[in-house]
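BUG: 3D viewer hangs when loading the predicted structure for this chain

Environment: internal workstation, default settings.
Expected: structure renders.
Actual: progress bar stalls at 90%.

Input used:
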Amino acid sequence: MNEPRKPRPIREHLRQRLPRIGAMVVALVVATAAMFLARQCSHRGDSPFRSGLPAKSGGDTLDVAIEISPLSYSLARDTISGLDYDILRAFSVQTRRPVKFHPFAPMDYALDGLRAGVFDVVVSSLPSTSSLKQELLLTDRVYLDRQVLVQRRHDPHFIREAHALAGDSVWIAAGSPLRDRIRNLSREIGDTIYIMSDHPYTSEHLVMLVAAGEIPRAVVNEGLARRLAAADTLLDLSTPVSFTQFQTWAVAPSDTALRRTLNAFLASFRNTPRYRALLDRYLQ
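Structure tokens produced before the viewer hung:
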């Protein structure tokens, strides 16, 4: 099999594809800026982002590292929106506990902060899997989602079912826990699926690169992919890579009390009209 073509630098991609990308540009610019700032604050060592972490707020303020994406946390014209963001705002109001948001793009930055005790919660695309539970302290479900293959509708090598990925390649976001799902799929089909993630791109970047024909396919959570694909009718999301899974938040490993508090809130909030309205707004 030919070696997969490496995508061009994102800045070059933006210059040449900007007119086509349209509404997706805002998410990209914000995410790219966040990654650049994180890199500027990094240093060599086992935890490259540790020196760039913010100071902990202190008191009863909850420090939340939240992924920059149209589904979790998005900024447009001074307006912040996002499913996870709105749910956490409801938590803050109900519990009267201040929440400070720390938007991030690289997953390693958020996990470094969680392990260092700077962040209390990490909000990202975190499916509740047994392997992830061994590494992180996860909450109960926040909502349901699954992983899908993002590809172009008229790709001559269009993949109609996940098993057809045998011997082929997929792109995932750097540091994504979706790597475990692809490895499990490889074992299920008894063949290798090559995972491409040696790049700083987030899920939004990968969807854009697929839309532009720079890479053939990527694995992304369906909820996020649907919001991004609305800007490009050439994208196809019809091939699932996983069953529906619980999407969760990660809590500092030693903070079981906070996890109990969050779980109690989520159990109550999931039964409210407000929660159902948010699902309709962001996941439909």
